[in-house]
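URGENT: need a sanity check before tomorrow's submission.

F., can you look over the DNA-3-methyladenine glycosylase II record below? I want to be sure the sequence and structure line up before it goes out.
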Amino acid sequence: MKSGPSSSELTEVAESALTSVPEYWAEACKHLVKKDRVMKRLIPQFGDACLQSRGDAFSTLARSIVGQQISVKAAQTVWHRFAALPRKMTPGNVLKLKVDDMRAAGLSARKVEYLVDLSIHFDAGTVHVKDWQAMDDEAIIAELIAIRGIGRWTAEMFLIFYLRRPNVLPLDDVGLINGISQSYFSGEAVSRSDAREVAAAWAPYCSVATWYIWRSLDPLPVLGAE
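Structure tokens as predicted:
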């Protein structure tokens, strides 16, 4: 199980401009307030704040790989060193980098392999970025987890933050499970099936409800990565 984005490599790490409010956000909040007692309490606490994303698909996924199993601060340091190597962060440019230079930036041998595999998939067009808007969530997840170093959790975070899909329920996320435990079960341990039962009232806006659960644990905004 992975920790939530508020403490992961996918948070508050980019300098680029934020995107606009998701078109479904207001309707989602209305739905959740009407259907769920906890959401009725939580949503008004955070005003106009909402899920936001940054950057491009390749850089977002590359950054998630760089940040695996290290602290947010360490991930930022390594990312900035790595990002300074190519003139522009593109799949083709990453494939031209020397392994020794990537290692010198602080990347492990395994992460170098993952970043190369990511770059190969993007460069060869085996991930259908231009078709993603027309594809369903599971089809996109299937494409992403075929890349070395990307598991279901990372793919779901990508769906929520980069593609801003409205109905993703990341049951492998520790933050979500802990938040459901605290908000719905008075701190008692909850199973995935318990979480699914709670989330039944959230559909078709599980991503939005998940974001508010994260906010209930950490009041700082939860943002997507560059």
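My own read: The chain has two domains: 5-53+168-217, 57-158. Residues 33 and 40 are 4 Å apart (CA to CA). If you see anything odd, call me.
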